[in-house]
Amino acid sequence: MLKVTGRRKSTVFLGSLPALLFFIVMACFQAAPLAASDDAPGREMISLKVPLGAERFMDFPIAMIGDDPVTFRDFENNLKASRKEMEDEEGNKIKKEPPTEKEVLERMLTIKLIVKEAREIGLLEVPELKMMFEVNRKAALREQFMQDLEKGYRAGAAEVEKIYKEAVKEYKLKAIHFRKEEDASNMAGELKEGKNFDELVNKYLAEEIGSLKEETIPADQLQPEVAKALTGMNPGEVSSIVKLDSGFVLVKLVEVLYPEIAEAREWASREAARLHQTGSVSDLYSDLVKKYAKFHTKTMNKLDFEAKKPGFNSLLKDKRVLVEIKGEEPITVGDLAYAMKQEHFHGIDLAIERKRLNKSKVELLEQILFKRLMRKEALRRGVDKSEPYMARVRAYEDSILFGAYVEKFVRPEVRLTEEELKAYYEKYADEYPKSARAAIASIPFVNESAANQALEKLGAGTDFIWISEHAEGLVDKNEPDLLIFRGDFFSLQKFPPKLQKVLEGIKPGDYRIYGDDKGRFHVLHVREMVQPEKSSYEELRDKLLKRLYEEKLGDELTRVADKIKENFEVVVYADL
After folding, report:
1. What would the CATH number be for the domain defined by 437-530?
2. Do domains 170-257 and 437-530 have the same CATH topology?
3. Chain segment 435-470, per-residue pLDDT in tens
4. CATH architecture of 170-257
5. Domain-wise residue ranges, the chain
6. pLDDT per residue over 288-325, tens digit each?
7. Residues 377/146, Cβ–Cβ less than 8 Å
8. How far is CA 104 from CA 5, 32, 256, 430, 574, in A?
9. Are the C-beta atoms of residues 510 and 458 closer than 8 Å to each other?
10. Which residues is 440 bridged to in the sheet?
11. What's the pTM?
């Protein structure tokens, strides 16, 4: 719940900054008070409690920087962005205390102050940036137009349900796995004679010939061979023999499930609208082609972008018309050649050598024409005057201006010394301990029953090596993709998550059973362990350098924002 106080005239709407821009600042600096509330003595005040997500208050200003508002929509978008899960460079989830609502607002004000200053000093007119802004305006116009075409369409319940079911479909399966095709063929033959699948499974397991795996798995996670076998099957039916890398499988489809997932249902509704939009856009494009476009087919057919004469570079200057567009500049041979050069930016000569240009010329011309006609129609409908489009453009400009200002005026002031970094290491090294390491040996078995029997014998004192060589139900050591530990040390963090969970809380001498994704079961023996220890300065230097640099960059951002604040009136209405 957000409490808003005060009063102020409403002004131009300012769109929220992209999440990436917000995360840059979130990662860099500690929040610092930036603004005073508009509570001058004698002024009458009111308080209003606004729940997050309240659409009617989205354009309500909760703060002002000069004449520019910070709206409730800005705040809510950035609050959501700040609380999304983040990952480090290795893809690990970063567990970090989310910022408070007050910190989010203060950091937003810092960003907006810097962007406002960037506009004031004329960064908007820097040639390289102007070119980027112009390209973005064209793209943003098309994107907004596409989005507008989607508005107002409500997909039918049956249409959404069909898409939803395909998205969430899960299969409840029973699969018996054989190492030998002969065993799988024997069971398949007995099934054809009318024998019961479950009874046959029990028989083969008792004879320790196969291993059973029961699971419920999303349709999109099935192995391709299994997915193909399940096609057209009904619950209760058994597949033909499926050949996998690990052996041969017979799969019984127990049940098809459609779990209720709110996010997936929302996606299905959006996807139905997107598919409708695709059809609408296609129809609209066809109408616009008939209305505005005239093709010079003969010129197009004669074009050879791969010919040595006159050569590709000459075609870049060719003014011959390929498509006339009523009221617009035509599409020329030079336009198409330039688009090809952009498409093959790694080297047009290689594309010519591999005969790729002529094959793609028709499709690329269609893409150019599509963009031109959609832009023309968007302008005709006034999309470029709409508030959502202007907000989209402003958000992009703000993100680029912020980055440009930081690169030009903030980063050059951030300096680090080796002494500072070493002191930082002494302060924070304990936060980066090395992972515990364990020396582990393993014995793989064809099923869980055999693994449990081996575990009982080991607990009774039977020698581990004897078990690994003579126990019943051992997996063939030559099986592909077989994981065997031979007593070497490994960092526990390097193991797959499922194996890490099995090894939680281990100590020397422990035994554990681990079931892999191939239906095999491994008896693990923990022989030795090395507990976590402090990482060296050399090991942590690069990581700490990045962290300290970000902190100092944040401090500099705060200092710069405080300085800029002297030039603008900053007023905060939100009481957080």
Report:
1. 3.10.50.40
2. yes
3. 788 899 999 998 998 999 999 999 888 999 999 888
4. Roll (3.10)
5. 170-257, 286-381, 437-530
6. 999 999 999 999 999 999 999 999 999 999 999 999 99
7. no
8. 18, 11, 45, 29, 12
9. no
10. 526
11. 0.61
